[in-house]
Specification:
single chain; about 190 residues; alpha/beta; Rossmann fold; 8 helices; about 20% strand; TPP_dependent_decarboxylase; TPP_enzyme_TPP-bd; thiamine pyrophosphate; decarboxylase
Length: about 190
């Protein structure tokens, strides 16, 4: 299985100024731990909304790749975002889904991917054509590198272990928003 923090470190090592939207929980904790930068948006208390925010950002900034780091439980909370993203089909979108088959932070309750749900198949059924599912670090690195160079939109489902992240980003929503806007070259209002 893939270690989420190790894979997140690979992601941030491959990007320059590309925005990364991280879902609540360990996705954002690992992003902060891997490399805190102004182009990172840390989602707090909005389960399922990283996919919608990342889609909007990809549509608004078609000239650069936009990366979403999401969790299986969070994506399952907003499956409609997949059909919307597939319909809009922004070529610059890379949506990474960390699938550990559980709601890790609330006690490890199983998500539907622990049973029969397959997020890669759901993405294909939603209309995505660039979909891959990986179970090793090498496969993840190859798939992510390919997605950076190839038009999408992309869904990369990474089957990960259940390791908790040690880091915690700032909790101030205003600070995160203003810093992210400045990281994108937008003056905060």
């Amino acid at each position: 299985m893939i270690n989420r923090l190790e894979a997140t470190r690979y992601v941030v090592a491959q990007v320059t100024d590309e925005p990364i939207v991280a879902s609540l929980g360990n996705a954002k904790f690992d992003l902060f731990t891997a490399k805190d930068r102004p182009q990172n948006f840390y989602m707090w208390n909005s389960m399922g909304m990283a996919s919608s925010m990342g889609l909007g950002l990809a549509m608004a900034r078609p000239q650069q790749k936009v990366i979403i780091l999401d969790g299986d439980g969070a994506l399952l909370m907003n499956l409609n975002s997949l059909t919307t993203a597939a319909s809009r089909a922004p070529e610059n979108l890379i949506h990474v889904v960390w699938d550990n088959r559980q709601f890790e932070l609330t006690g490890g309750q199983p998500t539907h991917t622990a049973y029969r749900a397959d997020l890669a198949m759901i993405a294909r059924g939603s209309g995505f054509t660039q979909v891959t599912s990986v179970e090793t670090q090498d496969a993840f690195e190859e798939a992510f590198s390919h997605a950076l160079k190839t038009p999408g939109p992309w869904i990369l489902v990474a089957h990960i272990d259940a390791q908790r992240s040690p880091g915690r980003p700032p909790k101030s929503a205003t600070y995160i928003k203003h810093r992210f806007m400045q990281g994108l070259g937008i003056e905060p209002v």
